Amino acid sequence: QVQLVESGGGLVQAGGSLRLSCAASGINFSAAVNGWYRQALGKPRVFVGSIGSAGSTNYADSVKGRFTISRDNAKNTMYLQLNSLKPEDTAVYYCKLGLGGRQYWGQGTQVTVSS
Asked: How many CA atoms lie within 13 A of 80 on its CB side?
């Protein structure tokens, strides 16, 4: 019943920007903890950033100052703004919501940064 639909991934040159979206349905979005993870080819999935129900944010050191997480409760949507992109940011980016001890994942969206 819970569905997370991601969009916004694509191919961009180094130094460019993208905005990823994660639209949620079937869940109390405003009460959920929202996060982004990424997985590069041949590497494990790692934490990128998160935003709590009260709006507090947390970021991995590798993206701090370049990426920004936000949420629009009226649209049941979470965003990840990616600025100053580097080739090492290339990965599949996954949306995750957590509520009531349960975790829900999006399908992932590919971000490729060329040099």
From this structure: 30
Give the separation between CA 16 and CA 106, rounded to whole angstroms.
24
Q: CA-based angle 39:43:47, to the nearest 5?
A: 45
> How does pLDDT run across 21-49, given as a tens digit for each residue?
999 999 999 988 899 999 999 999 999 99
- Please give the share of the chain, as a percent, with pLDDT higher than 70: 100
Q: Are 35 and 104 in contact (CB under 8 A)?
A: no
pLDDT band at 53 (very low <50, low <70, confident <90, very high): confident
Q: Given strand 3-7, what is the order of strands in its sheet?
A: 3-7, 18-25, 77-82, 67-72
Tell me the C-alpha distance between 95 and 36, whole Å. 5
Measured CA to CA, the distance from residue 93 to residue 80 in angstroms comes to 10
